Task: structure prediction
Amino acid sequence: KQNYLKKRFDELTSSLSNSSQELEDLSNIKQDIFNEIKSLESKQILDGELKSRFLLLREHYICDIKRLEFINEGKDLFSQLNIVKCPFCGSDIGLEHINCLIDGVESPSNLRNSINVELEKILMKFADLEITLNQFDSDICLREINLNDLNRKYSDICKRIINILEPIKSASKLELSSIITELAIINDHEGAKEMLQNYHEQKNCFEIDLRKKHKNSEQPDGINFKVLQEFCGFIKNILEKWKYPNISNINFDTNYNKYDIIINDKSRNANGKGIRAITYTSFVLGLLDFCIQNNLPHSRTVILDSPLTTYQGKETKTKVSELSKDMEDAFFNDLSFVDDKRQIIIFDNKSPNSNIQLKINYLHFSGIKGEGRQGFFNL
Result:
């Protein structure tokens, strides 16, 4: 589990680093887009204000054009009236007044020419103003398109930060904190085990020294703590294969009145019959594996009687089972892979599934004479 936690810790650290880097990059991009949006919005406001002023100027030009056109039109209508008095001197018109009128019409500073010149100037300015207003409309429209695109990008970045990156970062930090706590507990546990081993080794040394002082010829008895821990490791490996629930540690109690394994800081004999039976089986098979691994003497043959089935009394024959179906299946599945260095014979009322039966030498005792094999001794 420690290796898994370290691997997961490295994965989460890498993921957190990547998400933090992406979050920083997106935040910078988000800030740049925000600044550009504000700049474009400022230009939009400025151009909008200028456009409103140009539109007001346009209204003035239109009023001036209409006024001058009205004057011209009024002059044309006025010229069609009967002339009673001279419009220049106010006296009755005579020959000399007709000449005055003719001179006034042909003069370059007459009213019509002035109006036409002024009207032409205003029309030129009006045309330039129309071009400017069209350019303003084009710029404002293009800027509005850019603003919509930037707002969309800004919104997408905000959604990714809020909905994806920040939850990943928070979840990674939370899981990292949990893993760090678990690793600290495991390290403390390993440190405690190492200290305990050192204390046992020192205890053994002290006991040997004490015995040497009293009986120099006497051989030290007892089993080394390191050997017992190695043996417990074989048992733990077997129980893990059999899916023993929530197994964390196995130790050996060397007290003379117990001298048995301790599982999860609980004595083996403190459990029910079913758990005691399966753990005793793991003890026997663990001893077999230990002997083979260390090249120690062993018959390499083990006979197990009802490791999975126990009874409440001899008369009622009531089955009492503390083992889950998954654990029973894992038990049979593990033993179906036994190599040719070992021989394991099991007598039990529980039968493995059909797939397991094909992998082992399975014999069914019917208990009924004439129906299959009656019993172990086929009479």
